[in-house]
Amino acid sequence: MRDETIPTHCPYCALQCGMNLRGVPRPDTADGTAVEVVERPDFPVNRGALCGKGRTSTSLLSSRVRLTGPLIRSHATGRLEPATWEEALRTIADGLRRTRDVHGADAVGVFGGGGLTNEKAYTLGKFARVVLGTSQIDYNGRFCMSSAAAAHNKAFGLDRGLPFPLEDIPRTGCVILVGSNIAETMPPALRYLTELKENGGKLIVVDPRRTRTAEQADLHLAPRPGTDLALALGLLHEVVAEGRTDEDFIAARTSGWAEARAAAMAHWPELVERITGVGVPQLREAVRLFCDAPSAMVLTARGPEQHSKGTDTVSAWINLCLATGRAGRPLSGYGCLTGQGNGQGGREHGQKADQLPGYRKLDDPAARAHVAGVWGVPPESLPGPGRSAYELLDALGGDVKSLLLMGSNPVVSAPRAAHIEGRLKSLDFLAVADVVLSETAALADVVLPVTQWAEETGTTTNLEGRVLLRRKALDAPEGVRSDLEVLSALAALLGHEKGFPADPEEVFQELRRASAGGPADYSGITYRRIAEEDGVFWPCPELDAEDEPAAHPGTPRLFLDRFATPDGLARFVAVGHRPAAEEPDADYPVLLTTGRVVAQYQSGAQTRRIDELNAAAPGPFVELHPQLAERLGVAEGEPLAVVSRRGRAVGPARITTGIRPDTVFMPFHWPGEGRVNTVTNPALDPTSRMPEFKVCAVRLEPERVSGG
Ligand code: SF4
User: Residue 493: its pLDDT value, please?
Assistant: First the structure.
């Protein structure tokens, strides 16, 4: 592609920044060329801005650390040894078939990822249910936004991360940003908040740490980790007490207010101050800023969501929006800032345990009939809902004997990770498709090297619900195949020679049909339209012919006329505060919370292999307040072990006044002794099955380096 410039999107987070790829001469590559990232200022979401991850994203394409040939574990040496594609695919097909024949279809598990394109997520779900016949499929997106998705569905009857485009944010009057450090997780989006303030709008940030995002706020509320639910209830109590509810909106557009109101009234401000540590004056100031603004939004991210009460917590924030008339109106509403690159699309098309394409429910007879019709199988042949991600991983080596894993690295990213690593090791058979030899791939019996984002075409759906097209810009190295080619070949080896095309556009055409009439309706979207329109917002139903749909404009803004519930009304959900699954005690007196840093992405499988990013963020650390550091007698940079009931993680102390004295923070991108997910708590939300990544009880042990 030496003389071409190809518009595409970043491979990492849910902002899906637009970028151009341009061919450049590079003598050390096979064809003498490589690609570099060039600004794409015309794409509206990021207007040319990229963070360091996006700017360096082509580094891994030509990296020597990527996999370029299949590997099979040798019985003789116990090591992964080079193999041919035919040997590797046949070994996987035989391994999965053997498990199914001996132990039944549900003994075969499938684990996907929120970074997989829509086409891959769709095909993986179809492969699990049609070829393997297993119900045991879920994906790492469960660890991302499932609590917000569950709360969205309860309140609005539909789950789309943001019900409005990002461009609306600077024009609203006030934003409450809960548990999102945009400045580090998606830096180009920070400008929406900067512009909000330039326009006179107010920014309230809720975060136990004074992050770079919190530094931008007009008001920073720093609740104790695990108490966002009480905070939201306290704000709603204050809204009622101050007479700031919007009674006309409540009467015309909602149901269930009486119960939700009664629940909130049990959370008076002084009680909430005791639970959260946020003072009553700050609560009142937040309500004043939020209610004085002519329009307002609440945006949440993993901070309030990754809890054993994450769904209820998001419901409480939605209740605040509904009670004040800040939903279903222009420039107002609740939204979730989805994290993973295709976290939105990945949860819509069938790799989630309970879902069929189009965000249909697997236990809905009409949905089963529709999708089975598209797939050409009897509806009764489709298995029912399976286990959630952590429960599936926890079942490995038990009744789930074999696993096919794509686009995920649970050895680093799952809670209670040492236990999950053990479960993976106890499998009869593990096959992993990945770009690099991740910590999880290193445990596999067979490893397949797959193409990267710039070497294949496919769609993703960003946090706004905007369906985007990533275009192939260059050929993959010899020896590498796409995930779709892998699934197509495995399906054929397992007796399904038809129905699993490797061509992404062919898959997308089928996805359109499968999603037609569903909540996430893509049937009016085509590759051509996406390319011409800077993406198309779903729902976008097809109005006319198969090949050239009459253009439905797509739906950038949801719920302005009615919510997606049967009666069109938004539903209040009555919720009450409850403690975290694990509270501090004498043995584990400190709270641990986890998160990300700007130069690394998720489990770090890709970004830890990029020199520039490693130089910026070389390893984990333990962030703690000076008072806590003094009590422990630990100095800046000294190794500090964070110990929970599940294990320990070690990192150098990073001392800052920007964190509560009762809390420590560790980022989760690294394996080994710095793997904080060894420590985290897998307690699950009863609705979303989200693990409690964001809070657990720990003790701190300075690791003295012995002298002399
Ligand atoms: Fe990529 Fe996200 Fe950075 Fe944009 S903000 S460049 S999508 S990692």
Answer: 98
Where in the chain are the domains?
Answer: 71-143+342-537, 147-336, 590-702
Topology of domain 71-143+342-537, CATH: Rossmann fold (3.40.50)
Mean pLDDT of 570-594: 98
What is d(CA 7, CA 108) in angstroms, rounded to the nearest whole number? 39
Read off the DSSP letter of residue 249: H
Read off the pLDDT of residues 398-439 as tens digits, 9 standing for 90 and up. 999 999 999 999 999 999 999 999 999 999 999 999 999 999
Which residues, 6+ apart, have CB-to-CB distance to 201 below 8 Å?
Answer: 170, 171, 172, 173, 174, 175, 293
Give the distance (Å) from ligand 1 centre to CA of residue 53: 6
Average pLDDT score over residue span 484-499: 98
Atom 6 of ligand 1, nearest CA residue: 54
Whether residue 463 contacts residue 124, with contact meaning beta carbons closer than 8 Å, is answered with no
Q: What is the pLDDT of residues 317-343, one digit of tens each?
A: 999 999 999 999 999 999 999 888 898
The architecture CATH gives domain 147-336? 3-Layer(aba) Sandwich (3.40)
Tokens of 447: 């490893």
Ligand 1, pocket-test mutation among 8, 9, 13, 344, most atoms within 8 A of CB = 13
For ligand 1, whether the C-beta of 275 sits within 6 Å is no
Would you place residue 546 in the very low, low, confident or very high pLDDT band (cuts 50, 70, 90)? Answer: low
pTM score, whole prediction: 0.96
Look at domain 590-702 and name its CATH class. mainly beta
pLDDT of residue 548 exceeding 60, the answer is: no
Q: Take atom 5 of ligand 1 and give the residue whose Cα is closest.
A: 186
Buried/exposed code over 634-651 (b: 16+ C-beta within 10 A; e: otherwise): beeebbbbbbbebbbbbb
